[in-house]
Design brief:
With 428 residues, this protein is an alpha/beta fold. 46% of the residues lie in helices and 13% in strands. The chain is built from 18 helices and eleven strands. The strands form three sheets. It has a five-stranded mixed beta sheet with strand order 2-1-3-11-6. Strands 8-9-7-10 form a four-stranded mixed beta sheet. Strand 1, helix 2 and strand 2 (59-66) form a beta-alpha-beta unit. Helix 13 packs across helix 14 and helix 17 (389-404) runs antiparallel to helix 18 (409-424). The longest helix is centred in the first third of the chain and has 24 residues, at 2-25. The radius of gyration is 26 Å and the shape is globular. Mean pLDDT is 93; it is low at 1-26.
Length: 428
């Protein structure tokens, strides 16, 4: 009897063991889907591969890369119909407020500890938060640097030592314009070579152009995210618009070329001073341009304490209609805070969104990121925080272009205000 009982117990244990092993071996893997901009494919692919390896047998991330312009349209179509197709999706930083207002993003506040939130640089915390809730976890950041063509400056006989400039000791816009004009007078005395003195990478776009108004102490939009009276028609913006128009008319800044072409002009030795993102050295190197250097962006004389720089980039958000929240949140945190964040930064070349990522190794390999680190801690200003950012960007881009093309700065500003007051009615 005892033998039979022991045999039954052994058999039962064997069955239970096999059942557990079978259950473990056949545990269903949770698959989440990510929608991402094609512009971020190298870095994100590296992070996704690392995530899938780290969570093999538990989670799997599949990603679809869309062309930059298609991301916004696709997101609007899917989320307005409460689609569950993507659990996680790319949300461009300045659109976080808009997506949160429309219910396209689920708050992430409860999933990130205060210590994890503090890992992000201050401007990235601001860009990702709307009305006290954290919605878009930053993947990386961007920053503004002034590049200069060393070949053109040498040919023009300019002996200014730009290497001695620092974040606390910048060249002023006024000094830079004089140097640019002096160089142009030597390089292109009859103005037939088309050599511009200064230009922004994203000419005609709020991301770069607004720093001129910010440098005079102007804000991008009122604190309520909607009021623009007193902003574009206020003294700081009018100073900036008038100053910019004068430099265009004097031939210091370009007229007619668009943002997608500025890098080609700089690499073709047609622009002396070029204000662009820290992603540009990669473009220069790929195109064989080596005669350039970089320094901190200028400030206006008398407004040294007001200097600002552009910042911001893509974030990732949680679909509020996702049925796989646990897996999706695990991926978001992996991509933006932990090992995936490092994989992304190492491959993408973006400015880190995490303070800890500014390592000696990174700064040694990409020394221009030392400027980005300083600006992120001291001068970086996020774009306008408003649910109507797309409408804002369209109207303000037109404002800069209209002034560039000769429109009266005040009249152009009032037209912009009228347009936005009408557009913002949708949100109020």
């Amino acid at each position: 009897m005892m033998k039979k009982l022991l045999s039954l117990l052994v058999a039962l244990m064997l069955v239970l063991g096999l059942s557990a092993a079978f259950a473990q071996g056949t545990e269903e893997v949770t698959t989440i889907k990510l929608m991402m901009s094609q512009t971020q494919e190298p870095g994100v692919s590296a992070a996704v591969a690392a995530f899938n390896e780290a969570y093999a047998g538990k989670y799997l991330c599949e990603v679809d890369y869309l062309a930059f312009d298609n991301v916004f349209e696709t997101l609007e179509i899917l989320m307005s119909s409460k689609s569950e197709e993507y659990d996680v999706f790319a949300a461009d930083g300045p659109n976080v407020a808009a997506y949160a207002t429309r219910g396209y993003l689920a708050p992430l506040t409860e999933y990130f500890t205060p210590e994890e939130m503090a890992m992000f640089t201050p401007p990235m915390q601001v860009e990702s938060t709307y009305q006290g809730e954290f919605y878009g976890a930053p993947m990386g950041d961007s920053s503004l640097v002034m590049y200069y063509n060393t070949k053109l400056l040498e040919e023009a006989g300019i002996a200014y030592d730009f290497s001695q400039l620092t974040g606390e000791n910048r060249i002023t816009w006024e000094e830079l314009v004089e140097i640019a004009k002096q160089a142009q007078s030597v390089l292109d005395p009859d103005q037939t070579q088309g050599i511009a003195g200064i230009e922004f990478q994203q000419v005609g776009r709020t991301y770069h152009m607004n720093v001129l108004a910010n440098d005079f102490g102007g804000v991008n939009i009122s604190d309520d995210g909607f009021t623009i009276e007193g902003v574009f028609d206020g003294e700081p913006w009018q100073k900036a618009l008038t100053w910019y128009q004068q430099q265009v008319q004097d031939g210091v800044f370009t007229r007619g070329i668009n943002a997608s072409d500025t890098s080609s002009y700089f690499m073709a030795d047609k622009i002396i001073f070029y204000l662009g993102t820290t992603a540009m050295p990669g473009t220069f190197d790929r195109n064989g341009m080596t005669h350039y250097a970089y320094t901190y962006v200028p400030c206006f004389e008398g407004y040294e304490d007001e200097v600002t720089t552009s910042c911001g980039s893509w974030t990732v958000g949680l679909n509020p209609y996702s049925s796989k929240v646990e897996a999706a949140v695990e991926f978001i945190k992996y991509l933006t805070v932990y090992d995936g964040a490092d994989a992304y930064i190492n491959v993408s070349g973006m400015v880190p969104a995490l303070s800890r990522q500014f390592t000696d190794e990174l700064l040694e390999s990409k020394p221009y990121l030392k400027i980005a680190q300083y600006e992120g801690e001291n001068t970086a200003l996020v774009r306008a925080i408003t649910p109507g950012f797309n409408e804002y960007a369209t109207s303000v881009n037109a404002l800069w272009e209209n002034v560039r093309n000769g429109a009266d700065p005040m009249e152009a500003a009032l037209d912009c205000i009228d347009e936005l007051n009408t557009a913002f009615l949708e949100y109020q």
